[in-house]
């Protein structure tokens, strides 16, 4: 009897552990704060665990001369619940990833090509940590802190970034200030910028007010 109970418990624990191996996101369902519901195991395929998009250069013909190609859970459902994700950065000469934050994730940047000037600002005394990175260099950006990347030379630069969340979140400072209907007078009061500069930036980024 004891042997039967042992085998039953072992089988139960084994099946439970197998069920928790992964939770491929069912992207047809609504996302919750803890991620997507799990796709039915019978519908999971190897393609849910493979993403090929980072091998293709992004289109840098835009206002920032840069492109971000994400491999987040919405593009790569096998990441669901695993606490990781990636992206590719392409920066043309003069390209910049503007000052931004990821509210939900730490970030690790690896330079694959070219040279990138990168930095972040701590919340303690607003200390700046700034470095020009070359191929093979890695830099970390702690969760929630303002940071940026700029092409440091006249040739294209490429990097990959890894995040500690399948949905790292993103808020770009310039867009938060100038790409919406936040009244200009409030921006001027809170940033010490003059009216002409605020109106110019709103015009460039599509804001109103």
UniProtKB/TrEMBL annotation:
Annotated Mn(2+) binding sites: 100, 102, 107, 147
Residue ranges constituting the Cupin type-1 domain according to the UniProt record: 52-199
Cleaved signal peptide residues: 1-19
Any Pfam family: Cupin_1
Keywords: Apoplast, Disulfide bond, Manganese, Metal-binding, Secreted, Signal
Disulfide bonds: 23-38
Main location: secreted
Residues at which oxalate binds: 102, 107
InterPro entries the UniProt entry points to: Cupin_1, Germin, Germin_Mn-BS, RmlC-like_jellyroll, RmlC_Cupin_sf
UniProt GO MF annotations: manganese ion binding
Cellular compartments per GO CC: apoplast
Compartment list: Secreted, Extracellular space, Apoplast
Family under the similarity heading: Belongs to the germin family.
Protein name per the record: Germin-like protein
Protein species of origin: Macleaya cordata (Five-seeded plume-poppy)
Taxonomic path: Eukaryota, Viridiplantae, Streptophyta, Embryophyta, Tracheophyta
């Amino acid at each position: 009897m004891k042997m039967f109970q042992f085998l039953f418990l072992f089988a139960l624990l084994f099946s439970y552990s197998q069920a928790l191996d992964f939770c491929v996101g069912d992207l047809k369902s609504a996302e919750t704060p803890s991620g997507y519901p799990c796709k039915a195991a019978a519908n999971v395929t190897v393609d849910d665990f493979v993403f090929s998009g980072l091998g293709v250069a992004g289109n840098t013909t835009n206002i920032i001369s840069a492109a971000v190609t994400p491999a987040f859970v919405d593009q790569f459902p096998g990441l669901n619940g695993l606490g990781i994700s990636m992206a590719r950065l392409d920066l043309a000469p003069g390209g910049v990833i503007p000052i931004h934050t990821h509210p939900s994730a730490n970030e690790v940047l690896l330079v694959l090509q070219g040279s990138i000037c990168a930095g972040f600002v701590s919340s303690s005394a607003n200390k700046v940590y700034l470095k020009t990175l070359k191929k093979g260099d890695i830099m970390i950006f702690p969760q929630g802190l303002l940071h940026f990347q700029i092409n440091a030379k006249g040739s294209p630069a490429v990097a990959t970034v890894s995040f500690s969340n399948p949905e790292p979140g993103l808020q770009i400072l310039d867009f938060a200030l100038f790409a919406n209907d936040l009244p200009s007078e409030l921006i001027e009061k809170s940033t010490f910028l003059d009216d002409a500069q605020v109106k110019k930036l709103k015009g460039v980024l599509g804001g109103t007010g």
